[in-house]
Structure formats: structure tokens, C-alpha cells
Write a structure and sequence with these properties.
Length: 146
């Protein structure tokens, strides 16, 4: 019983802040050692490539945000809502289960909207996370160089 309890505690510690911080610190130390052991030219190369990748990722992020803003300005969602109106109008004109048709159209449309929104938020989070990691990497290289 005691072994099971200890295993459960060890499993829950994986998700604790202290454990995450310890892992990040270990990763940081190993990365810093790697950079400290690099020749100066290779370190400069790593710095330049990291900076270029970070700037490229920032540009992609900006382009992604502009695309979203442009789609909002061009009323892309207006097409979606006009489809919903058309589906409800069609459901009202049919003699059968008009409520069922409207309900199914609404559910399908809601799933599509939820999926698109989730993908957009996931992509935004991924962009921000990548840029953050690149900035940390660049700061570590700068620290070793100076």
C-alpha cells in the first residue's frame, strides 16, 4: 500500500511547479554548457541563425494576425450566418421535421465554428510559444558571448 501511495505522489509531482522548474533549470544548464563549449565562430553562427529564425517566426505571426483581421473585415463570418439563415428558411418551408433540420444545421455549423476557432487559438499559442523559446535561446547565446 505504501509503495502505491509513493508511486501516486511521484506521478503527481511530475505536474508540480517545482518539478517543472527543476526540469527547465536542468535543460537550461545543459544548453548553457553546450554554448560555452562551442568555438566562437560556431557560437556566432548559432546566434545569427537563431535571430533570423526568430524574426521569420515574428513575420509569420504578424502575417497570420493580419490574415485573421482581414477575414473579419471582409465579413467571412457573414457568409456563415447567411448559410444558417438559408438553412432555417429551408427548414421552415419544408413540410416534415423542420425543427430537426434547423437543429442539425445549427449543430453542424456550431461544430465548424468551434473547430475553426480552436485551430486559430492553437496556432496563435504555438506561434507565441515558439517565439518565447527562441528569445530565451538568443538571450543564452548573448550571455555566453559577452
Amino acid at each position: 500500500m505504501n509503495r502505491i501511495k509513493q508511486s501516486l505522489i511521484n506521478f503527481l509531482n511530475i505536474f508540480s511547479y517545482d518539478e517543472k522548474r527543476r526540469k527547465e533549470l536542468d535543460k537550461f544548464k545543459s544548453q548553457m554548457d553546450k554554448y560555452k563549449n562551442m568555438p566562437l565562430e560556431e557560437l556566432k553562427f548559432e546566434y545569427i541563425v537563431s535571430n533570423a529564425k526568430c524574426e521569420k517566426k515574428k513575420s509569420e505571426f504578424t502575417l497570420f494576425l493580419l490574415t485573421i483581421a482581414l477575414s473579419v473585415l471582409m465579413n467571412v463570418w457573414d457568409k456563415f450566418f447567411s448559410f444558417m439563415k438559408m438553412a432555417i428558411d429551408y427548414a421552415g418551408k419544408t413540410a416534415g421535421d423542420s425543427v430537426e433540420i434547423a437543429k442539425i444545421s445549427f449543430i453542424i455549423s456550431s461544430i465548424i465554428v468551434f473547430f475553426i476557432t480552436a485551430v486559430i487559438f492553437f496556432m496563435l499559442f504555438a506561434f507565441i510559444n515558439d517565439i518565447h523559446k527562441m528569445k530565451i535561446n538568443i538571450a543564452m547565446i548573448e550571455d555566453v558571448m559577452h
